[in-house]
Amino acid sequence: MTLRRWMWIFVVIGLAALALAGAGRWLLAWPGAAVGTWVGIGAGYLLGAALLALMPRWWRQHCDEMYAQPAGRRYLRALWPIMVAYSLTLFLSLWLVKRGIDSLPLRALVAILPALPIALLMRAALRYLREIDELQRRIETEAIGIASLLVALLYFAGGLLQKAKVIEIDAAAAMIWVFPLLCLIYGIAKMVLTRRYL
Questions:
Q1: Could you read off the pLDDT of 94-141 as tens digits, one per residue?
Q2: Angle at the Cα of 114 (from 129 to 21), degrees rounded to 5?
Q3: DSSP state string for 169-197
Q4: Is 128 contained in some domain?
Q5: Which end of the chain is more exposed for a tag (fewer CB within 10 A), N or C?
Q6: Please, are residues 124 and 78 in contact by the beta-carbon 8 Å criterion?
Q7: d(Cα 40, Cα 34) in Å, to the nearest integer?
Q8: In the chain, what's the furthest Cα-to-Cα distance?
Q9: Is 63 a domain residue?
């Protein structure tokens, strides 16, 4: 599957989420928070599609070659249902928590529901990492290492600044943004390393 095809899948998912938000707003009389969640999900996928469209040609060609291999095809086949499941569980989790759940264990279980698709994503990524050639594995592991170290440094520095009362950061928001920030820095590091090694 090509990167351009992934871009169109992101567009379709994003537009479907926005259509669901519209239906929730005007047909189903959903509360504003539920509509806002679907608008956010749709906007996120459309932003992802825009980023894929803006990738340099050499990167798109490299990704198309990489994902044409059997390991890459298996990884992509596992990825798109995980993305849809993440969007649905995120909405369901936020909706149920905002409606109020008295039982603390049940509230905790519902709150971490979106983490399950992320765990499946990590499993698929590890399987992909085991199946690729040595050079690509080196690029992937270095990119993961760079992302992990930079995010840890940023999180640590933010904690020190908050402790010194220089900044005020909501702890829940900071924790939620760790994984997306890891993914973003990993993607940038992978592009730089690919350019360097290939």
A1: 888 888 888 889 999 999 999 999 999 999 999 999 999 999 999 999
A2: 120
A3: --HHHHHHTHHHHHHHHHHHHHHHHHHHH
A4: no
A5: C
A6: yes
A7: 10
A8: 55
A9: no
What's the CA gap between 188 and 27, in Å, rounded? 41
Tell me if 1 is assigned to some domain. no
Full domain range(s) for residue 149 = 133-198
- Say how far apart CA 32 and CA 10 lie, in whole Å: 24
Specify the pTM: 0.79
134-193 pLDDT, tens digit per residue, is: 999 999 999 999 999 999 999 999 989 999 999 898 888 788 888 889 988 999 999 999
- Sequential DSSP letters for 135-152: HHHHHHHHHHHHHHHHHH
Number of domains in the chain: 1
Residue 82 lies in a domain: no
